Amino acid sequence: MAWLVTGGAGYIGSHVVRAFREEGIDVVVVDDLSSGHAEFVPVDVPFYRGTLLDGELLETVFREHRIAGVVHIAGFKYAGVSVQRPLHTYEQNVTATAVLLAAMQEAGIDAIVFSSSAAVYGTPDTDLVTEETPRSPESPYGESKLIGEWLLRDQGVAVGLRHTSLRYFNVVGSGSVELRDTSPHNLFPMVFDALVDGRTPRINGNDYPTPDGTCVRDYIHVSDLAVSHVAAAKRLDAGERVEPVYNLGSGDGVSVGEIMATVASVTGIPFTPEVGPRRAGDPARIVASGQLAARDLDWRMRHSLTEMVDSAWAARQAVS
Q1: Where in the sequence is the signal peptide annotated (predicted)?
Q2: Does residue 141 have an active-site annotation?
């Protein structure tokens, strides 16, 4: 039996694929390569290029492989852009998930791990987010992820779908120099690209009520994240109880200023970041508790900030 990883050619998905293989579990990948890379998929992993909106493609995958369950990572992940492209975001993240769930139901596949997002919380009124923190998404992206969780919940009631959703903030680092974050919207790629181009990285505001005046967030290593996706799949496969949602959080967070200082140290490129105005709606501190995931999903922060930056920089340099 194999697990299907949707979005398995992407930054996070490709690490999840490798984490499955390290556990001796076969995988199949579906990815439309809108943001993924075919070379991120191991050559001996069955790979189907296509969109989850294509129900016939999913029927083919489920017919040609014995699939135990699905890790659903594919989606449109850019919160800021989603405000300008709400219909596209809902199509990619809500309609596609509904098509996937329908194909799973038709094929008799009843287990799914959903890659959700801490964007479902919006701007919480607490500086330590738990699974019980009220959900109040502030973008079509965050809303689409919350709707995805509802779809799983409702399929659980209707047909007994076994499911869990993993919520997290900022994913960084690399588990291999062959795999890197190529998103133009994420902090590490933006900082590295600026340094490679001879530009000075920029901080949005340094007058927040935090120790160094910059925003504090959860930053978690992609390999740690991947381990917990596989742990969730294994619990579902074994028929063990899982919570409907888990936060994969650090519990304490790091500041943007700390990240900039670590980047300068690791890269050997000294710089003082430019400071721009605050971005509207950016809270001073948002950090999630990972206690439930630590209990059930082998979740823990195995990498220091220096190791996160060092691994990401090594992957970036591999293509320079």
Answers
A1: none
A2: yes
pLDDT tens figures, 219-249: 999 999 999 999 999 999 999 999 999 999 9
176 is written with which tokens?
Answer: 């291999």
Q: Which of 44, 34, 42, 40 is nearest to 9 (CA)?
A: 40
- What's the token pair of residue 51? 């969109």
Exactly one of 11, 48, 121, 141 is catalytic; name it. Answer: 141
Q: Which two tokens stand for residue 152?
A: 């799983």
**Model confidence pLDDT, tens digit, residues 52-105:** 999 999 999 999 999 999 999 999 998 889 999 999 999 999 999 999 999 999
- Does domain 172-218+250-287+301-317 sit in CATH 3.90.25.10? yes
Distance (Å, rounded) from C-alpha 99 to C-alpha 111? Answer: 15
Residue range(s) of every CATH 3.90.25.10 domain in the chain: 172-218+250-287+301-317
Closest CA to 248 of 277, 219, 269, 268: 219
- Give φ, ψ of 160 to 5 degrees: 80, 20
What is the identity of the amino acid at 7? G
